Amino acid sequence: MNKACNFPNDLTYREALQRASSFLLAHGQDEEAAYHLLLGLKSWQPSDWFSRQFNQADLGFLTNYQHGLRRMVTDDYPWQYLVGEVFFYQHVFKVSEDCLIPRPETEALVAYLIDHLNPIPKRILDLATGSGVIGLSLKTAWPDSDLVASDISQPALDVAIANADFLDLPAKFYQGDLFQALPSDEEKFDLIVTNPPYISNDERPLMSKSTLKFEPPEALFAKSQGLAIYIDIAQVLDKYLAADGLFVAEIGYQQGPVLVDLFTQAYPQAKIWLRQDFAGLDRNLFVKF
Asked: Which residue from 102, 171, 162 is spatially nearest to 140, judged by alpha carbons?
């Protein structure tokens, strides 16, 4: 199939979007990505689109738009990396190939925590923070809380730091492997939240080409059938989670029962439960001390 993407130079933004959507659809791509790519390249909000969609598209935009569309189709390149940012829980966050692209399931977890946690945690730890979207989103909702975040990847941590600076949010960032990144004088936390690597290598055939080609594998895959990070956390969680504290993790949809058993054996007095995602699949583990 022809993967050329050649637009006339006299299009409105609306006409360009229509052509882009058709182009992506014809090549088996998500047509809605054309809209997100357009807004990202123009640095527009949805309100800008509604007021400017019938304006003549500038030639520089059309050139960049077609280049991005071709790369999405030819290379399966994510539109989020093309524009370098995503909208996540009411705010724009920078992203790059050094960190994962935030998923709707993660955004739903953040919304759930903000809507349901009472009292508001005073100290928050975001383990394996990546781009920082979880911890920084919580910080925007709870400005009086202290946020600490860690990641084993310094390039990913640099993205999180850039996001904190962009949002003007104070936070402490440490590079290292899980809790080992923390200095010894850090006090215990009221909330520890994490979206760690939890995918088994056996699941590679089920994953999209785009994810496998461009998102960092060290942020996706874990040993021991995807359970290695949770096993490490379970061994030392009580050293870092305060009395009455809450640990929350995003998990693989098949890992729920195994993880409930793992944390129940480690902390038999804790209250442990699972929360399901949009599809009714186990997606979050809660451990309440």
From this structure: 171
